[in-house]
Design goal:
With about 325 residues, this protein is α+β, with helices and mostly antiparallel strands. Helix content is about 40%, strand content about 25%. The chain is built from ten helices and 16 strands. The strands form five sheets. Strands 3, 4, 5, 6, 14, 15 and 16 form a seven-stranded mixed beta sheet that branches. A three-stranded antiparallel beta sheet has the order 12-7-13. It is elongated and about 75 Å long. The model is unreliable at about 315-318 (pLDDT under 50).
Length: about 325
């Protein structure tokens, strides 16, 4: 085989295998059989003239030559896609698929409806929305954009700050009728708490008074939950007091199913950020969705816009 056999299809298969470390994982993603992916990689290696991947029974890794070839391949495929976008843009609307990862409860209650509205505006753009509270590797999983709550450590991605998610203490009227209403932070130690098992430090609450004073109080309870929507149901069912994101419970507060407690004290807000794979940031359809989400998420109850909306690489120490 010669260099004319280096096709974009073979290059794309190699790139995704290199990112995922698995031939079998890439096959369903690209809609072909594993034998096709294996053939693409083999034919590419034959055309290039060097082995690009090292295969073991457990994992596929890149050779030194493969790592260099991968970096160049990513740039080539990005330029090809951008060129196609620009060509389509002269004749019609952007098309293609965008993959998004989002924290589950926020995705179900808010992001999903925003995606519906986005697709109404751009009917030729497909969206693959993955809802998970796990921190996924965006490049490895082929994700373009991720919406995440909390501090971040990803050093190779672009960060778009969306704002701060305000939290408040809530409980159901039935719970408060049975157990009484806390009037000062220390009262919380005598109450049932609904805790998130996937949030570090959930056994303690830190509240700030109107005068700036800090109160650190123990927060315990018989129920720990790892999903925001299940916690929401527990609040309605009078299982205890919970520190909840405003966007999670705003409708329940309006309907009288939950009430705010200790309203004169505030909980620390949680940062809400968008992560973007740098190689995908220039793709027209991705840019459109990024700007749409930035605009729309600012209107969600409890999301307080940061003083400055930034888009920058993440520093490793963050």
């Amino acid at each position: 085989m010669d260099k004319s056999d280096i096709t974009f299809e073979r290059m794309r298969s190699f790139v995704r295998v290199a990112e995922r470390g698995s031939l079998s994982a890439v096959a369903p993603e690209l809609g072909v059989g594993q034998s096709t992916i294996t053939r693409h990689v083999r034919e590419l290696e034959e055309a290039v003239g060097v082995p690009l991947l090292s295969r073991t029974t457990r994992r596929v890794t890149m050779t030194a030559e493969g790592s260099r070839y991968y970096a160049n391949s990513v740039q080539i495929l990005r330029l090809v896609e951008q060129a196609s976008d620009e060509a389509r843009g002269t004749r019609g609307a952007p098309a293609g698929t965008i993959r998004i990862s989002c924290t589950a409860a926020f995705g179900v209650l808010h992001v999903s409806r925003l995606i519906f509205a986005f697709q109404d505006r751009h009917p030729d753009i497909g969206v693959d929305l993955s809802l998970t509270d796990e921190r996924v590797d965006l490049v490895r999983e082929g994700v373009d954009i991720a919406l995440r709550l909390g501090p971040l450590t990803d050093s190779s991605l672009k960060l778009r700050t969306l704002g701060q998610s305000r939290r408040l203490l809530v409980a159901s009227p039935d719970y408060l009728a049975a157990r009484g209403r806390p009037t000062v932070p220390s009262d919380l130690s005598r109450h049932e708490g609904i805790r998130m098992s996937n949030v570090a430090g959930s056994e303690t609450l830190v509240l700030q008074g109107a005068g700036g004073e800090r109160h650190t109080v123990p927060f315990a309870g018989r129920l720990r939950i790892d999903h925001g929507l299940a916690a929401r149901q527990a609040m309605i069912a009078a299982r205890g007091i919970a520190p909840a994101h405003r966007w999670l419970v705003d409708d329940l507060l309006a309907a009288g199913l939950l009430e705010t407690i200790l309203a004169d004290y505030s909980l620390p807000s949680v940062p809400l950020n968008m992560l973007i794979v740098p190689e995908r940031a220039g793709v027209a359809r991705v840019r459109l969705l990024v700007e749409f989400l930035v605009e729309q998420i600012a209107a969600i109850p409890g999301i307080e816009k940061s003083r400055s909306i930034s888009c920058r690489p993440i520093c490793p120490e963050e």
